[in-house]
UniProtKB/TrEMBL annotation:
Residues 1-104 form the HPt domain. It comes from the Bacteria. Coiled coil: none annotated. GO terms for molecular function: ATP binding; phosphorelay sensor kinase activity. The keyword Transcription regulation does not apply. The modification Phosphohistidine is found at residue 47. It is an enzyme of class 2 (transferase). Keywords: ATP-binding, Chemotaxis, Kinase, Nucleotide-binding, Phosphoprotein, Transferase, Two-component regulatory system. It comes from Iocasia fonsfrigidae. Gene3D superfamilies: Histidine kinase CheA-like, homodimeric domain, Histidine kinase CheA-like, P2 response regulator-binding domain, Histidine kinase-like ATPase, C-terminal domain, HPT domain, SH3 Domains. This is Chemotaxis protein CheA. Residues 325-533 form the Histidine kinase domain. Residues 265-279 have a biased composition (Basic residues).
Length: 667
């Protein structure tokens, strides 16, 4: 086991990936039960989990996946039809696999009792004949049934026609390997290679990739175009070690004449007659990606950050020699390229998180007796890996809430004139330097009156507070810890249960979450997040002789205001900018600096930064606009993390520390 420890993390990582893949493909299989590609994909993933488990010595997991594989093999061989019971059985198996992997991760051994589930699998396998597909043309003992294994599409038939000469025949071939064959993938590879040597290999089942993965049974089905007669072809294949039997007949592309020939079992121990002809099989595909520990990427990012800081300090020296300027330009180019590359390495599609939810929504639909369709858009939107890892829980809470308290039951929806099936839309897209994630349902919406009534009842707000709150402020009450309007908190969720976690996690990622809701129309949660938490472009400003950084993604523009342009609305200084009224906020006041406030009105020109936060805009008044530069964001640490209006710090050219303004809180 000691030797295995170094591979445990790899086992956990790959198990998680295969489980995700299995969940996605079983969902697809439920929608397309006859799709052979999906069936094969599920089989391959289950087979891979079994192989990994056996290698690591986890017997219970190996046994479990082996029996699941048996079920899938019967499905693949058309001996078992996919129905809801089989899908439920497969999903239950995936849950047991996950549970066993978690056992190994937490306790180092398999504790979950899977005996009852294994019995279910055995029962299914033993009674599979009851659900054998009743298509008469399927495989029967002793017969070839290529039509169910190798169906040629139109393009493949055209390819065969183009390749065929007058002397060629098209053959259906089944090459059966000996059951005791130890190197099935090697023998399968040799079978395909032999087929290419003696003719044109039009199609095979399994494919080359499946053979490389040893993802097939004992038979290899081939459609071959060749000038050789059937006896010669059988002889060629029989010369391969571990080939037990070869069956062959003519494909009706050339003739309907059937010349099926069966050769009895007879092992061969030599493959010396193999000859190289024509082209060989293509080389095994080498994955263009490698798995890298996220901590190593963090270290690399930190080093790039240090490089950027020192480059900024060098620029600050402002030495006026050609050689120095040339070096600075070269250094600037290299650091920018390096930064870009590191950022690209860290960016991953958000689909990795999104793809967890279809299975969850399926289970919720059954549990809640509702019809819910989860639609996913923008799954290829990329986000920094460190942010994506934190998003799963907030999104899960929101989706569970939408399913439980948003989408109505089919009967209620019908009474409201809505579609029988409710929809939850999960959408992601990039907007400037932010990533927007929306979870929208077409359910009953949030009753704002009930929301405020509950908040009053719980003492969260007062009557006076309500007078100053608009609808958006009232909707934000659902994020208050422990707040819920639900009379009955279910196992799934209660509106408000867990939503404070959503807000806390999103804000810890320097993001924000908003709610929009309309009664009987639906609710939309919008999460805005920065692309990355490490390095960003910022505008440097001076407030009371201190330098502050404002992330560029939050800024729409900078302006110089003349005092006579400032107007008053309800005691608030505002300006009218292109017909939009924008309130002015004094930076020094927001930061509680020890200066006399309101003196900006005496200046001839007042520098201001127009900041966007959601749908809000404010004009942040500063003392001086400095320059734009790339900054490395440093955390303030746990002791200073909750300072209002400050989100972090950075190091400027002279080596001093500049604080980064959390302008979305200011707005």
């Amino acid at each position: 086991m000691e030797n295995n420890n170094q591979y445990l993390q790899m086992f956990f990582d790959e198990s998680a990936e295969y489980l995700q893949l299995l969940n996605e493909n079983v969902l697809l299989l439920e929608e397309s039960p006859d799709d052979e590609e999906i069936i094969n994909a599920v089989f391959r993933a289950a087979h891979s989990v079994k192989g990994m488990s056996a290698t690591m010595g986890f017997d219970r997991l190996t046994d479990l996946t082996h029996k699941i594989e048996n079920i899938l093999a019967k499905v693949r061989n058309k001996e078992l039809s996919i129905n809801e019971d089989i899908i439920d059985l497969l999903f239950a198996g995936l849950d047991y696999i996950k549970s066993l992997v978690e056992d190994i991760r937490s306790a180092g051994e398999e504790n979950t009792d899977v005996s009852a589930y294994l019995q279910e699998l055995d029962n299914c396998l033993n009674h599979s004949n009851d659900v054998i597909d009743d298509k008469g043309d399927l495989r029967s003992d002793g017969d070839l049934a290529y039509s169910s294994y190798l169906k040629l599409n139109e393009e493949e038939e055209k390819n065969i026609a183009n390749k065929m000469k007058d002397t060629d025949c098209v053959y259906n071939i089944e090459v059966i390997l000996d059951k005791s064959c130890l190197l099935k993938n090697v023998r399968g590879y040799m079978v395909l290679k032999k087929a290419q040597e003696i003719g044109y290999l039009a199609k095979s089942n399994p494919t080359q990739k499946e053979i490389e993965d040893e993802d097939f049974g004992d038979s290899i089905y081939i459609i071959l175009v060749s000038t050789l007669d059937s006896e010669s072809i059988i002889k060629e294949f029989k010369n391969i070690v571990d080939v037990a039997e070869v069956k062959i007949d003519l494909n009706d592309l050339k003739s309907t004449r059937k010349v099926e020939t069966s050769v009895s079992n007879k092992k061969k121990t030599s493959s010396k007659n193999e000859k190289k002809k024509k082209t060989s099989l293509s080389n095994m595909q080498v994955s263009p990606t490698v798995r890298v520990d996220i901590n190593k990427l963090d270290n690399l990012m930190n080093m790039v950050g240090e490089l950027l800081i020192n480059k900024t300090r060098l620029e600050g020296l402002n030495i006026k020699t050609d050689i120095y300027q040339d070096i600075i330009q070269q250094l600037d180019r290299v650091t920018m390229d390096l930064h870009h590359i590191v950022m690209q390495i860290r960016m991953v599609p958000i689909g990795g998180i999104f793809n967890r939810f279809p299975r969850m929504v399926r289970d919720l639909s059954k549990e809640l007796n509702k019809e819910i369709n989860l639609m996913i858009e923008g799954a290829d939107t990329e986000l920094d890996r460190s942010i994506i890892d934190e998003l799963a829980d907030p999104l899960m809470h929101i989706i569970r809430n939408s399913a439980d308290h948003g989408v109505e039951t089919p009967e209620v929806r019908k009474a409201k004139g809505k579609a029988f099936e409710g929809v939850i839309l999960l959408n992601a897209y990039q907007k400037g330097s932010e990533i927007i994630i929306e979870v929208e349902d077409d359910g009953k919406g949030i009753d704002v009156d009930m929301l405020t009534e509950k908040a009053l009842e719980k003492g969260i707000i007062t009557v006076e507070d309500i007078e100053d709150m608009d609808e958006k402020d009232k909707l934000q009450l659902v994020f208050h810890p422990g707040f819920s309007t639900s009379e009955k908190v279910t196992d799934v969720s209660g509106r408000g249960v867990g939503m404070d976690v959503v807000k806390r996690v999103v804000e810890s990622l320097d993001g924000q979450v908003y709610i929009e809701s309309e009664k009987d129309v639906g609710t939309r949660f919008t999460i805005s997040l920065p692309l990355t938490l490490a390095i960003t472009q910022a505008l440097m400003v001076k407030i009371d002789d201190e330098i502050f950084a404002i992330p560029l993604g939050t800024i729409s523009e900078t302006i110089m205001i003349k005092p006579d342009e400032i107007q008053q609305v309800r005691g608030q200084d505002v300006i009218i900018l292109r017909d939009t009224t924008i309130p002015l906020v004094e930076g020094s006041r927001q930061l509680n600096l020890n200066v006399e406030y309101g003196q900006y009105i005496n200046k001839e020109e007042i520098p201001a930064v127009i900041i966007n936060s959601g749908e809000k805009q404010i004009g942040l008044i500063v003392d001086e606009l400095l320059n734009q530069q790339e900054i490395v964001i440093k955390s303030l640490g746990n002791y200073l993390i909750n300072i209002k209006n400050i989100s972090g710090a950075t190091i400027v050219g002279d080596g001093d520390v500049a604080l980064i303004l959390d302008v979305r809180n200011i707005a």
